[in-house]
Amino acid sequence: MTATPRTRRRDTPPPRTGDSEAEVLRGFLDYLRASIAAKVEGAPGPEARAAGVPSGTNLLGLLHHLTSVERTTFLGDRVTDWPSTFHAAPEDGVAEVVARYREAVTEANAVLDACTDLGAPLPRAQPNKPAPSVRWALTHLIEETGRHAGHADILRELIDGSTGR
């Protein structure tokens, strides 16, 4: 039996940010966003789509879901079927899903750049629904992205032995 070669990337330490609450929150969110995008990027296509655990979780689905979370939270998009966000379209490859995620992050950051008060409601396009504060939205995205980045770490290691952030 031949051992699978392992790709060990050097772990990237947590970010050094400015001292303000906004700089710390945004710094950690961007760190986690970059971590999960890097974990999915370059993964072999069929394996990135394949379920790594009995629940059906897979790398492409995780990033597709996080794209929806970014767009819903910061850009006001509506999602009516959250379970479906865990499945990328059959024609979507790794590069397309990663590019869409990065585009959503860029658009979300443009919204955040205009938010100077963390206690203010987040600008949203969803009518008849109260907007959370910018602080809450940033904290929620840190939790959500961090959770799924951990899932992605395990799935990528199962696929090709790649570890590290």
What does this structure look like?
InterPro entries: DinB/YfiT-like (IPR034660), MST-like (IPR007061). Pfam families: MST. Residues 1-23 are annotated as: Disordered. This is DinB family protein. The chain is mostly helical. It has one domain (27-160): dinb family like domain (Four Helix Bundle (Hemerythrin (Met), subunit A)). The chain has five helices and no strands. It has helices at residues 21-40, 45-49, 59-75, 94-113, 134-160. Helix 3 runs parallel beside helix 4 (94-113). The radius of gyration is 17 Å and the shape is globular.
Secondary-structure map:
Layout: H1 21-40, H2 45-49, H3 59-75, H4 94-113, H5 134-160
Notable characteristics:
single chain; mainly alpha; Four Helix Bundle (Hemerythrin (Met), subunit A); DinB family protein; DinB/YfiT-like; MST-like
- How many helices in DSSP terms? 5
Q: Which homologous superfamily in CATH is the superfamily? A: dinb family like domain
Into which percentage range does the β-strand content fall? under 5%
> How does the major sheet shape up?
none
What name does CATH use for the topology? Four Helix Bundle (Hemerythrin (Met), subunit A)
Per CATH, the class reads Mainly Alpha
- The 3D shape can be described as globular
Radius of gyration: 17 Å
Say how many strands there are. 0
Order of helices and strands: HHHHH
| N→C terminal distance | 29 Å
CATH-scheme architecture: Up-down Bundle
Average the pLDDT over all residues and give the rounded result: 90
Structural class: mainly alpha
Helix content range: 40-55%
Low-confidence runs? none
Number of domains: 1
